[in-house]
Amino acid sequence: MAPCSDTELEIRAVEAFFHDYCLDPENRQFSRGFLAGLKTLISQAKPDSTVLQATKVVGFANLGTRLGLPHLVEKARVMYSEMLRSFQLMIAHASKLNTAELLMTAVLLGFCRQIITATEDHPSNHSSHSSGIYAILATECSPLGLLRMSCEFQISNPLHISIPQRVPGILHTAALSPSVRSLDALLIDSFPLLRTAESMFSSPSTLVEGLHKLLHDTRAMNEGFAKWETSQPPEWRPRTICHRNSMPKRNLSWVSGRVDEYLDLYVAAVWNAYRKNRLFILNNIVRCLKRLEHGRSYHEEMLQVDELISDQLAAIPFHLTANVRSFAQQLNDNQDPIIVRGRSIGGLLIMHPLYVTSHLSVVNPRIQAQVKDCLAWIGTNMGIGEAKMLSIAQQTFPNKSVANGYTLIWAGMLFTDSDED
Questions:
Q1: Cα→Cα distances 188→126, 167, 194, 221, Å
Q2: How far is CA 120 from the centre of its chain?
Q3: Neighbours of 390 (CB within 10 A)
Q4: For residue range 352-377, what is the model confidence (pLDDT) as tens digits?
Q5: CB-CB neighbours of 332 under 10 Å
Q6: What's the predicted TM-score (pTM) here?
Q7: Are 181 and 232 in contact (CB under 8 A)?
Q8: E-strand spans in 183-322?
Q9: What angle (nearest 5°) sits at the alpha carbon of residue 346, between those of residues 70 and 226?
Q10: What distances in angstroms separate CA 109 from CA 127, 151, 403, one per listed residue?
Q11: Residue 260: strand pairing partners
């Protein structure tokens, strides 16, 4: 990168972050985008505002990791540490501040931590930063509370932060039938069920009656997820643009013979959130059946697992490539595919679902190894340190740091740039 003044460097860093991480909705009827409205918020911010300073910090982190510039990464580390201390003081007076700006600041600092702090040398437990985020988000408009309260932040009117949504929750489709539960509601109900399952499976003295109830509840939850999937409108579904039964010699282990295309990365992220959580549920169904020693195969459940994994693998090129149709054409032409990396937001939005896939016992070890390779690729090529860490992590579920990281992503979907949603 050519030498430039500090002011020019800040402008470049902020613009690069906007390009790599901000997503304007492709169609507001079907998509919320990601960090939508950040540009507007920054354009209206005062020069000394916390949100502008946080954008500069994460901008330096992004630019430094993407271009391999250690001095920018170190600059971001120093600025991050200084901002985190002042930000923690601001938390104590959050009620007197612009809540939308404060939340956006928390999200941006969280992304900075995911980009530069989450490496082998700086394990990503997110503990100190997450406590700050939850201090803000433990309100009726938190990402978790939002799933119950149906609120959103609007950048065009940031002081009015409890505006009822016209659609059910963050992870929505506008055409969702009233008779079908929203994905948000299913996720909320699945959290305690997953915690109960982990408690039972880790106990050597779990009662058979408890396992039978868990199996019944988990199967009901799986049926709810399946009903959500079948209810989605054609406009919102993935479209297969390449499907080969045989593959050429591959330089990327995680490239399958199928490539799917989505309306935008928000829509793809929602589908992968659905797949991630349904895989959790199916994994627990199989574990229940094994513990109860029913003496039968798990063919039906494994068919569902295989379908979800195939769909997830087919979504990877859309998340990671700059031009998914060009990538698909290489496969159609029987070429060894070469990825031209896309925007970093694509890797950010798929890394947690891939991490879950890499650790569930119901997933084939060969597939687990492939998605770990993909996580390592994201970390190396898209400048997201946490993805590289997740590719080698040996943590158990449910993992608090992963849950906290996913909370950051939900929070990034809270903002809109207008009241037209």
A1: 22, 17, 11, 11
A2: 21
A3: 29
A4: 999 999 999 999 999 999 999 999 99
A5: 13
A6: 0.87
A7: no
A8: 239-243, 258-261
A9: 145
A10: 13, 23, 16
A11: 240
